[in-house]
């Protein structure tokens, strides 16, 4: 979880949200901590771009706000091109996320928690779990509409709480939708989770899987695992090479 | 999760187990990865030392085996001084663990999973959760007697699997008790969890809480949190300073 | 949870089910208890009305049966207008439920449990959780097709069990579909849950959230919370008023 | 959940905590809401009284603080007579709680959550579940040391948050133990749970079972349940009357 | 769980998978154990047949491979006729599975675990739970893409592990899709679950419900249940016979 | 799960309960089904025998009642020799259960569910899980004091429900303790679980692990597992034979 020279120029992190401001609210502080640690951060907002509701001016305004918020966080911004309130976790959505995963070569993904009362959040969480099926690190953040949430992984955001609120404030046009996003509740939850984490202010994450970075450089597998451990039975030599 | 220079000479890690070889079996590979990353590792074996069963020679033999295993891992060894099969999670056990936590200044603890069919394992897990109540990082490992286990945090042990087996082999006298500790099952579980973690071979951990290390140096809280966020109501000025 | 004069003419309760007789089976006794306590109850049946299968006579017959059952319970009846076995939790379904929530001003909702083997039940539970995202009271009832169900909230239906069976019996034409709805199982489950609840006969509910009614009249927030607790950081004055 | 005249002078509520200030922290606001609604509230503090650590003056001081806190809440105070950090859930502890349950005729109990890293909290939660085995209402509150906590029942404490902090402040001598009890975290958690409950500020509870009060007066069982439902098989007439 | 003469020619078992090789991977060993015990086994592969991707030759090749794998297991093969990556749990999918359940008269079903990152696996698990809503035995197997999985039912596959690998090897053309299906991981998981089950090598299953076969021949219900237990209230004589 | 000739004279089943009548109530019907299928059943009652409360006549009376109940079920009876309400899950309790497991050579154990509000039930469940740590089949039954209970394994007890009630009625002296054991609730729960299991009347069990019996005779491991799968790394030849 660092940006040491042994890993080169830092980790590539991808945060995915269904709507503008979902990512800032769920993991904006953690993303700023990643940027501060030298990691590269990309925010993928699945709806609210070219296909969003409203006239061209409103769409352009919303896109500009999201761009401003990404800049405050220090992240690159990508759009998913889906339509608000009509997201489904079909193969098209999975492929769009797979494409951004390839472009960013991310190996840590932040996304909505799977159990959420908003259909778009559920769909994006499900599609991300499909697209990231081979990634060793997938963390889920909480939204105001999240239902069951049992976090066990935390990031200290004490140094980034003001920045997170500034990023949220960039979304001036989201007024109606954001009736559930109150700044004092954002601060309160950070303090609540901070107490759970035994630190100051924290963002909380429910991990699907989280491989820790301990070693500066892992040796190749063949070097340390004796042949007998390969577990390939001798008599199934008909098994095609591609399957191993 | 690293030992970069910004954190000084590396993290202090404490692994706690009820009996000789519990720690090696549950997280021996992860401990070797910590050592390889420059962290300081202490193994606290709660029973099997001076109060163990057997005559003086047997006790000395078992202590020598555990010492040898710790050396293979590269860890310092401490004994809890409790008696095998009679461990309870009372205040005495909690205090013994608190003492080692203070001595090592550890901020990451590995210990048995709480739901285990062996009474000593349950007691050590419970006592450790009490002793480590202010620590931001507590991870639980699986034992052959563990019941419900839902891991989500993993460490890549591909480079350390042979070393882990060597450390387990150092416990030659544990023959009878270790009927449930079969080397092939150790390798198989590492491969099974590795597939879950989307890496080669892994040890799996159930987190009570795990604060990630992202930033090289966190600023002090007052510097970044506006006064209004301190959440201390003005009219409760009678609240003693020590409680804040 | 009462209809005392301090709350005026009683609470408005909304019960939602996918098909005719789902509501009676899941929470018919509780609804009769609400009526007896002076609350206003609305039953929203999402399918089986104008779009249902069968010829016009069958449809009219089924609607008349449901109307009779609602009258036995003492509830107002509303129809969702969806088609049996083809319900999805899309924005249209959410909006239909939101509309009835607005019309009834309900602040307590009963609906299917989310984990159910019938696709319509799952969809209605999910859509209701979306539509009721700002409501403080959402309780889930069990159906014969419900899978995981962990109730912790109960209503004593001893006085209403006979009435519940009468309301179920009003659905004479539902014979085929109701092979899983056996009156003796209805009584047995009420007794089983009654034993769990430490009362006579009970209906059992799994709460998503349930705010209890303790105080006759809650003072407004500003009166009792010091300004410092508002948690709004001073320097984010650019935050638009609408977001607070 | 009310104090209507049909239930006479109001409900009898019992709150149980292991140590001084546990109850105030976990459910102090809810208790004040009960008092405001006309309910009778008793606080049972299991340790810290006559058997507590310290000299007679310290013990007397701590008891006076707890008495002052109970007065601020409007509750009667009872002591469990156990020794701090040495509580076990044995038959003696169960009997002590049973005795207070009988004296108060309470039918709603608040107590620690069962999964807690403090051994005394675990023991009191377990003993209370035993003592209250026939009670229809048992709610668990969160402590700073609580581990898994999945609340679904909430009480609005907006009107009582200042009072709760005052009651906590009465425990001036608990300075050392209360390092985990920070007023700003108390406010933050109330706001966090309030957002979860869709109200202002809330205390959150995990229910073991919670029977709702809907009907002003429930008829007796025989009046409404036909004889056939009694489920007593005719041929087991040898069954003693006392078992029915 | 046997094929004794009292049950006639053996149980009818149905295994359902979304894609070619899903069934072999998830429960191929258990199916071979069923065949060895005299049970009749049918494999229902929902996609990859006539509607699959690729030209006619590729489709025919894939179908031939699946046919060969079924023969190695000793099972009859059926196709669901759905399209890969586009499966939804709608009424059409449910009806297709109901049809095969009727044809096979199966009373034990194996299917994907419900919580899976692949949309087709989720859909097939959900549709099967709907179609098998009246069956007393539904067991879920793990796939490489399965997320939460808490098995408690196991089948000893020590005698069938080589056969399972042979059946998997029959799917030579599935190379690309099967990057997550590595033979050594198959063996390792069987050993891992075997250790959990306290046997050699095992396949692990999460039960939705599993009725055990204990008695060679169960008497009819009326013979042993006194009339009073029928729980049918006398006064609801208007209840139609079909509902009882 | 049968008593076919291939398994010789039938399975040996051990049911364990804390007090007289706990076993009958939790799994009496299943035990009768085992007996009917030719299995050998032993009931181990841990308290209430020679160390129980009351004078010698009362103790003798209670023992005679339990003996009569065991005879009605067709089971052998054993006593654990512990004292009512003072059971702890220490090594002595574990050893007593281990002793009976050895004597009976049981490979299927029924015992209390682990999460129970009665301390003796919790202790017996925990001690049994320790004693049965190498057994492939451990099923937990529900008691009136059981808390969380999520059954997924069922036994059809339609043919044995009357017999179960007769066995319970044999415990005439248990009047006071059995206030929570009402025959109508026993029948109701059997019907409730029967509906969950999709059969008539059922007893429900939460499995810790349940290995199914499919094959009439399993070949030895070495015969079917190629050498390469043994997973024993070549270079750790120092590993003592006893550990393999």
TrEMBL record, chains A, B, C, D, E, F:
The source's domain of life comes to Bacteria
Q: Give, as one word, the top-level EC class.
A: hydrolase
Q: SUPFAM superfamilies this protein is in?
A: LmbE-like
Q: What is the protein named?
A: PIG-L deacetylase family protein
Stated EC number for the protein is 3.5.1.-
Question: What InterPro entries does the database record attribute to this sequence?
Answer: GlcNAc_PI_deacetylase-related, LmbE-like_dom_sf
One MF term from GO for this chain?
A: hydrolase activity
Q: What keyword terms does UniProt attach to this protein?
A: Hydrolase, Zinc
Lineage runs:
Bacteria, Bacillati, Actinomycetota, Actinomycetes, Geodermatophilales
């Amino acid at each position: 979880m660092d940006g040491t020279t042994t890993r080169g120029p830092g980790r590539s992190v991808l945060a995915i949200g269904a709507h503008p401001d979902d990512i800032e609210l769920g993991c904006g502080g953690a993303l700023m901590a990643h940027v501060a640690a030298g990691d590269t951060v990309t925010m993928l907002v699945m709806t609210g771009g070219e296909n969003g509701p409203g006239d061209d001016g409103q769409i352009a305004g919303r896109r500009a706000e999201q761009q401003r918020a990404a800049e405050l966080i220090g992240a690159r911004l990508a759009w998913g091109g889906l339509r608000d309130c009509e997201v489904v976790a079909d193969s098209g959505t999975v492929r769009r996320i797979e494409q951004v995963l390839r472009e960013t070569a991310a190996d840590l993904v932040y996304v909505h928690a799977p159990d959420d009362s908003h259909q778009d959040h559920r769909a994006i969480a499900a599609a991300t779990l499909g697209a990231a099926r081979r990634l060793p690190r997938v963390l889920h953040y909480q939204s105001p509409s999240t239902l069951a949430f049992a976090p066990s992984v935390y990031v200290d955001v004490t140094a980034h709480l003001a920045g997170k609120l500034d990023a949220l404030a960039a979304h001036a046009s989201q007024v109606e939708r954001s009736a559930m996003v109150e700044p004092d509740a954002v601060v309160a939850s950070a303090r609540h989770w901070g107490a759970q984490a035994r630190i100051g202010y924290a963002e909380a994450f429910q991990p699907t899987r989280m491989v820790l970075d301990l070693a500066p450089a892992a040796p190749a597998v063949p070097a340390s695992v004796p042949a007998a451990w390969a577990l390939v039975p001798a008599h199934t030599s008909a098994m095609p090479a591609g399957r191993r």
